[in-house]
């Protein structure tokens, strides 16, 4: 099977490529990435020949919004796994246009190529399209929860999801969609919460918690997310949406407390900073449908163990994140966060 992975030099996409090489050696994988600030070629080093890897994957530099390029690549592959997106909420509040271009126009461009060539698509999305839940109830998102996005990022992801659903219904394309909760693990950009705090601590800087720190996210290890995507590709029903989550709800103060404990710092060694405008309170996924229809089960039940391994990865790979860290913290200080 020839698989085109978009956004393959980003966090989840690069982990997907490495996971697919390890668990599906008969797949032939091509990586497509616009190589924005969020991409890192080093993340694909094990499979890129010019970086000393085994040369099993070709990396094409280009945008999913580039129609002629996308048309040719889609024609040459059997399946497209579509991770490419602008992904960071804080950036979307500062500068929304790249989110519309990559997430909406990019997905539209891909859908048209999929329709022309009759290929299979799996579209990667987020639980943020459903908006947020109250802190004090037990409700969780399901596949029938209405979309209700809060930020420019989540609005563009909801727009992309709706385009995919419309292309399934009106044009009969062979596609599936998944909406996953917050991922953590190796190779995540240092703008995101967990890597930002790990690299702060490693650099002797206190973690920075937005607002009260009571906001809840439903954490899942990136390998568990990617294994679920592979399960949907192989066992999912065409036309369906699947929610992916691993029952990993924690508020931000709890995550910071675990990171401080893992790095031997006192529990109060963090600071509160200004809140994110429109900050979603709580996300929580009910993944019953995925569990009933596929044999997928998460392997990282213990977030503390997953976080410990992630801390070690950042400790061992400072070359991978050092320059992005400088740039990211310059942006955060301009935003007052
Ligand atoms: P990321 O920012 O680390 O990676 C995104 C990649 O997409 C980058 O390499 C970037 O260069 C590339 N890209 C951006 N615009 C592009 C374009 N126009 N053409 C081609 N490539 C482009 O993001 P991530 O955290 O790896 O997220 C990947 C996908 O998973 C996104 O669709 C995101 O919405 C979704 N998702 C993320 C999470 C999470 O917790 N990070 C959770 C659920 C879903
Ligand atoms: O839910 C899935 C989504 O998770 C994905 O769709 C997004 O691509 C991904 O970025 C993530 O969105 P969040 O906004 O939840 O993630 P982020 O890492 O930016 O923030 C997680 C929580 O931590 C959130 O409540 C904001 C808070 N935060 C974040 C940063 C960067 C802080 O308290 N301090 C920080 O420095």
From TrEMBL:
Keywords: Lyase, NAD. It catalyses: dTDP-alpha-D-glucose = dTDP-4-dehydro-6-deoxy-alpha-D-glucose + H2O. SUPFAM superfamilies: NAD(P)-binding Rossmann-fold domains. Gene3D superfamilies: NAD(P)-binding Rossmann-like Domain (3.40.50.720), UDP-galactose 4-epimerase, domain 1 (3.90.25.10). InterPro entries: dTDP_Gluc_deHydtase, NAD(P)-bd_dom, NAD(P)-bd_dom_sf. It comes from the Bacteria. Belongs to the NAD(P)-dependent epimerase/dehydratase family. dTDP-glucose dehydratase subfamily. This is dTDP-glucose 4,6-dehydratase. It comes from Terrabacter terrigena.
């Amino acid at each position: 099977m020839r698989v085109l992975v978009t956004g393959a030099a980003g966090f989840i996409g690069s982990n997907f490529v490495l996971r697919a090489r390890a668990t599906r050696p008969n797949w032939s994988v091509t990586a497509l990435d616009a190589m924005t600030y969020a991409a890192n070629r080093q993340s694909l080093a094990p499979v890129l020949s010019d970086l000393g890897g085994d040369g099993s994957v070709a990396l094409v530099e280009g945008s999913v919004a580039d129609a002629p390029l996308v048309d040719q690549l889609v024609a040459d592959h059997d399946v497209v796994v579509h991770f490419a997106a602008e992904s960071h909420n804080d950036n979307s509040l500062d500068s929304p246009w790249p989110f519309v271009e990559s997430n909406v126009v990019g997905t539209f461009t891909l859908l048209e190529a999929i329709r022309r060539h009759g290929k299979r698509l799996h579209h990667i999305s987020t639980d943020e399209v459903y908006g947020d839940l109250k802190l004090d109830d037990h409700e969780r998102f399901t596949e029938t929860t209405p979309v209700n996005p809060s930020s420019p990022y989540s609005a563009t992801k909801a727009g992309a999801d709706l385009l995919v659903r419309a292309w399934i219904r009106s044009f009969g394309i062979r596609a599936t969609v998944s909406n996953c909760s917050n991922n953590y693990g190796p190779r995540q950009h240092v703008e995101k919460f967990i890597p930002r705090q790990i690299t702060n601590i490693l650099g002797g800087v206190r973690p920075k918690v937005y607002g009260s720190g009571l906001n809840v996210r439903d954490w899942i290890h990136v390998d568990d997310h990617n294994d679920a995507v592979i399960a949907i590709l192989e066992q999912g029903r065409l036309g369906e949406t699947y929610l992916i989550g691993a029952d990993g709800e924690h508020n931000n103060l709890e995550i910071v407390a675990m990171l401080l404990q893992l790095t031997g710092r006192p529990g109060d060694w963090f600071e509160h900073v200004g809140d994110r405008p429109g900050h979603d309170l709580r996300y929580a996924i009910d993944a019953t449908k995925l569990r009933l229809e596929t044999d997928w089960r998460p392997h990282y039940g213990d977030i503390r163990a997953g976080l410990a391994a992630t801390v070690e990865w950042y400790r061992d790979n400072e070359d991978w994140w050092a320059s992005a860290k400088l740039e990211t913290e310059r942006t955060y200080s301009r935003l007052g966060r």
